[in-house]
Amino acid sequence: MTNPKSLSHESGNLLIFKKTINMRTKKHFETAAIRTQSKRSHFGEHATPMYLTSSFIFDDAEDMRASFAEEKEKNLYSRFSNPNTTEFVDKIVEMEGAESGYAFATGMAAIFSTFGALLSSGDHIVSARSVFGSTHTLFTKYLPKWNIETTYFKVNEVDKIEGLIQPNTKILYAETPTNPAVDILDLELLGKIAKKHNLLLIIDNCFATPYLQKPIEYGADVVVHSATKLLDGQGRVLGGVAVGKKELIREIYLFSRNTGPALSPFNAWVLSKSLETLAIRVEKHCENALKVAEYLESNEKVNWVKYPFLKSHPQYKVAKKQMKLGGNIVAFEIKGGIEAGRKFLNHIEMCSLSANLGDTRTIVTHPASTTHSKLSEKDRFEVSITDGLVRISVGLEHIEDIVNDLKQALKA
Ligand SMILES: Cc1ncc(COP(=O)(O)O)c(C=O)c1O
């Protein structure tokens, strides 16, 4: 847990190295990602070690009492906090411009725990229909068990959002860009609606990362992530994080500390190391993705391409307003529907057929025949998944090798 009560990053477990950074100047994103670091031990290690310990010790009975009473800011037990998870969370807090945060074992644990902590029986959510599959299952199968209902709006019908708000609506929820169809929601608009109606705005910022987009600047109260994707960026560990307003994170922390979805210190160590290179990785991912999108637009076997920074994207202007670059996900529709999608996948040579995204390795998926095959055609179309839709998570291989693989698979 990152210091839910006080926001000072110089107290507690963390120490920003004053020898190398003048703390009176504002830290840049890259610097915060590298120089936000756990306090060094007496060994004087340069990089943060792993704290693979389930619990921590106390000097005496009074030290233990005061620590449990939260009169002292100390690590007690790694389900509550651990120096590695604190370092990881504090980096995300800095990057997103948040006040506080808590780290989870997975992105879904972050999303579920956020709802679990902030909602009560009888509350209502208004959400974009295009949300990650498991989030949709949470809305439609599990939250109703606790009498929490969700009403959806379509991504191209944001003008209808206000009409869906009920007296018991508590949360406005969206992902942007969306998975898998890379639609864009206008964060400024969502922020204004949430403020006007006194709703909590919760944004899944997984596809953009805080390097490209900061929902808190538009009024988001809580930002959630699957750290499994670009935050790790190398397809190694699962993780999740929720950051936002101090008092909301306090609720999320208390819920999580008692229900147990905490991130392991090992995964936190891996993720914190990954964040040191997030900016440079995401820059290159985006450069490659734009080139892939431009190539696909010129291929005659492709009906259309959707990439936030292509002028042809329906929400291009909104993407340009709120994102620094277009992200690493490209969606396109191959001519010939489901069969053509399957054939394309079968002819891929280098890229991976895998369920993950945001990896160094380029990954291609065909949602209509795999992840979304159980949905009716109508339901799939509602979330912009047409029969021939292919999603590419563009990696960091040489751009010519990525494009050549797509080219030969399209030709086959
Ligand atoms: C947008 C989005 N949110 C949340 C998740 C869930 O993350 P995790 O798999 O880490 O639980 C995913 C996973 O693909 C995702 O794409």
Write the layout of secondary structure elements.
Blueprint: E1 14-16, H1 29-35, E2 36-38, H2 61-68, H3 83-96, E3 100-104, H4 107-118, E4 124-128, H5 133-142, E5 149-153, H6 161-164, E6 169-175, H7 187-196, E7 200-204, H8 209-212, E8 222-226, E9 240-244, H9 246-259, H10 265-275, H11 278-297, E10 302-306, H12 316-322, E11 329-334, H13 337-347, E12 352-353, E13 363-365, H14 377-382, E14 389-393, H15 399-411
Parallel strand pairs: 4-5, 4-6, 6-7, 7-8, 12-13
Antiparallel strand pairs: 1-2, 3-9, 8-9, 10-11, 11-14, 13-14
Helix pairs in contact: 1-3, 3-10, 4-9, 13-15
Bound molecules: pyridoxal-5'-phosphate.
Pyridoxal-5'-phosphate (PLP) is lined by residues 106-108, 132, 175, 179, 204, 206-207, 226, 228, 238, 240.
Description:
By secondary structure, the chain is an alpha/beta fold. It has helices spanning 29-35, 61-68, 83-96, 107-118, 133-142, 161-164, 187-196, 209-212, 246-259, 265-275, 278-297, 316-322, 337-347, 377-382, 399-411, and strands at 14-16, 36-38, 100-104, 124-128, 149-153, 169-175, 200-204, 222-226, 240-244, 302-306, 329-334, 352-353, 363-365, 389-393. The strands form three sheets. The protein has a seven-stranded mixed beta sheet, with helices on both faces. The chain is globular, with a radius of gyration of 22 Å. The model is unreliable at 1-12 and 15-23 (pLDDT under 50). Pyridoxal-5'-phosphate (PLP) binds next to helix 4.
